[in-house]
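User: Here's a chain of 180 residues. Predict its fold as tokens.
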Amino acid sequence: MPGATFLSGDVVDLCNVEEEDLEFVTEGVNDPDVRVPLGIAQPRNQKQHEEWFEEEVSSDDDLTLLIVARETGEPAGLIRSNWMNERHGHAILSCWLAADAQSQGYGTDATRTLVDYLFEERRMQTVRAEAYAFNEKSNALLESIGMRHVGTLPNWAFVGGEHHDSNVYAVTREQWWDDQ
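Assistant: Prediction complete.
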């Protein structure tokens, strides 16, 4: 059962991640439709996610939220922001959706909602994200919400037996509000 709602978008709620959600996380990141676009090369088990929950989710160094489809009340994925350099106002954004939650607008709504929060309440100046070049859905999502392609890291990841480029996207506070 999802934790308390921290942020609300149009079709999703972004909720606290609770220990009870770790089964969903474990199933999600082990699904080939999720792990391959994320570049995860080995299986992750419940124990590893319990340690991740204690070390990262429960820390103040970043924000990890469960994406919950408001219509069903079911978890749809995770979205994270790392305060890469909070003093200077820079954050890194990442997100994944369960296979059955993809292409329903949840990722777009969750990403827009979190970027709004980062600029409004965390006073970030720049938000950055990356997507492997072969991950067409993620690249399209980032561009559709107004993030700009600012570069490509060649041969950045080894996935499925091949090296792949990673596209880097960013948006500044001014660009974000000018586009809204």
